[in-house]
Amino acid sequence: MSYFAQFPNMLYDYTKPGSQSTNLIIVKDIIRRVKLNSSVASSIFAYDEYDIQEGERPDILAHQFYNSSKLAWVILLTNEIHDLYEDWPRTGRELSNMINKKYGGSGPYALKGTDTSVGHSYSGKNGYYYPLFLNAKDANEYDRLQGYAGGSHTHNFSEFPSTTFYMPNGVNRGHASVSFDNGLYRLWTPNSGPDGVHHYERPQLSGDTTKHVRTTETTYVTYPSPGTTQTLSSLIITNRQYEEAENEKKRRIKILRANLVQEFVNEFKLIIKD
């Protein structure tokens, strides 16, 4: 059974303003929401839990469990998945692309150096800015647009040891300048990029201390024995780690047992036509 085939028809008026004639077409009422309250839909005993594997789609699972890819909508509806792009777990490649896009893209950025060690080629001199990209392709293109050969070189800063930056090769780029044009660059901070800080966590101080709670503080205090305290560093959760954890949460779904699918479909047909 096709999901949208069961929706009732409706008249849609697409008459242009000021027109002397009325233009109507028949379309499916796809904005109708369905909530199933039967014993089939609500019973926890009607489902089996399943962890979505890498690259599995709803139609693949429908064929696997119900022997029909056309019943993919049953899996989506019973798990209240309304946006397949946002609610279904991404593949590793899709997730990586989303993280890179969401947390800044390639540049151009400007990094303000904080290290004071003069003459160290891999430290940002205190108070100076450096124009940066996150991949060689964009750095090369930037170099060409400025009339140079289209080259770049990698640059690692001790302020951000886990990130490799790319600098255009051409001179007069504002390398190590005391200011930068915020209309051209975005300032790179500890929160920037996939490996930037998303938030901090610390263990619960009471109850189940293996569980972590979110905090805005970079340190926390424990009391290992009466009258003594100990200050510990909070756990850094990067943007990448946060998104990966959120993606993993989407893997656990419930699968309606095959012997109940037909009853579910029949109920859906009745409700959608009311």
Sequence-ordered SSE layout with sheet pairings:
Layout: E1 9-13, E2 24-28, H1 39-42, E3 47-51, H2 58-66, H3 72-78, H4 84-87, H5 92-102, E4 109-112, E5 129-132, H6 136-145, E6 152-157, E7 160-168, E8 186-188, E9 197-203, E10 212-215, E11 219-222, E12 230-233, E13 235-238, H7 239-249, E14 252-256, H8 261-272
Parallel strand pairs: 4-8
Antiparallel strand pairs: 1-2, 3-14, 4-5, 6-7, 9-10, 9-13, 11-12
Helix pairs in contact: 2-3
Terminal CA distance? 18 Å
Percent of residues in helices: 10-25%
- The percent range for strand residues is 25-35%
Tertiary shape: flat
Separate helix tally: 8
Describe this structure in words.
This protein is an alpha+beta fold. It has three domains: 4-88, no CATH class; 106-188, no CATH class; 197-249, no CATH class. The protein contains eight helices and 14 strands. It has helices at 39-42, 58-66, 72-78, 84-87, 92-102, 136-145, 239-249, 261-272; strands spanning 9-13, 24-28, 47-51, 109-112, 129-132, 152-157, 160-168, 186-188, 197-203, 212-215, 219-222, 230-233, 235-238, 252-256. Helix 2 (58-66) packs across helix 3 (72-78). The protein starts with 8 loop residues before the first strand and ends with a helix. The model is unreliable at 10-14 and 24-32 (pLDDT under 50).
